[in-house]
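input
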Amino acid sequence: MVLDWMLLLTAAVGVAAPLILAGVGETLTERAGLINLSLDGTLLLAAMAGFAAAYHSGSVAIGFAAGAAVGAAVAALVGWAGAVLGASQVAVGFVLTLTCRDLAYFLGNPLARLQGPQLLPFPVPLLADLPVVGRLLFQHNAVVYASLLLVPGAWWVLFHTRVGLTLRAVGENPSAAYARGIDPRRVQVLAAVAGGALVGLAGAAFSLSVKPGWGRPQGAEGIGWIALALVIFGGWHPAKVAVGALLFAFLQVAGIPLQDAWPGVPTQVIQVAPFPLMIFTLAFVHGLRTEPVQRWAGDHPRLQRVLHLLTAAAPRALGKDVRRGT
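output
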């Protein structure tokens, strides 16, 4: 069987869009030192809310706005509990992801299997006719274009603006940031809300674009945990997170033709293969960060540059309780 690689790559770009939105959103949140583990439940609740809003209003734009609002609201709870109250961010995130998941299925039950509006492809004039690149990047819908633009946008904000500098300062050393007149708790809550809104957009993208409609399973189950893993895989850098999302999406879409190519392999094995492969990749990247590997690479300048691209340390204040003057 001959694989149509261009078709697979084009499909991967479309499937990766929600992952990029969620991954970059969580990157912004964690850069400020806050962990939001509610992503998996938030994606489902935002998918349900986005489809419900679009179904009843007839507007896809309203559906995406509803998804973003749900994501921002859940993230605001995480930020308020973790940054303001000093509660365990991990515990709060776990409780919210389970609550949001069950709430999505309960409230969305009347919407199951209903046909609603969906986001249609919008080829970019002139650019869509370019050879190779046109088909790969410019024959998608607005969500895909937004996800691709988000990556350089988030990179610019994080590393070339005062807002990004403040965000990273709080994530690295909240005490020093407070001494400079910055309120770390306020920054963390705002970062959580902004990141949560992107996660909510990702959820709406599932029910209005990737897998139009609402049902159980929706297709977004487990994606929140993958997005969290991608943030680590990407070293808290938007561009690397996007690369990881594209890799995971490619593994997902490649499973469809591989089922025909390898009929003897159970379908379930091919469907779940991207998840253990992502775990293996994370373990491999973690191994590159160990002291023996870093010491060995010290004698090889080129290898050291490669390791620098593949590895990065987490923000030093990530997950820690932020208190004034501490």
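quick obs: Residues 5-310 form a domain with the ABC transporter involved in vitamin B12 uptake, BtuC fold (CATH 1.10.3470).
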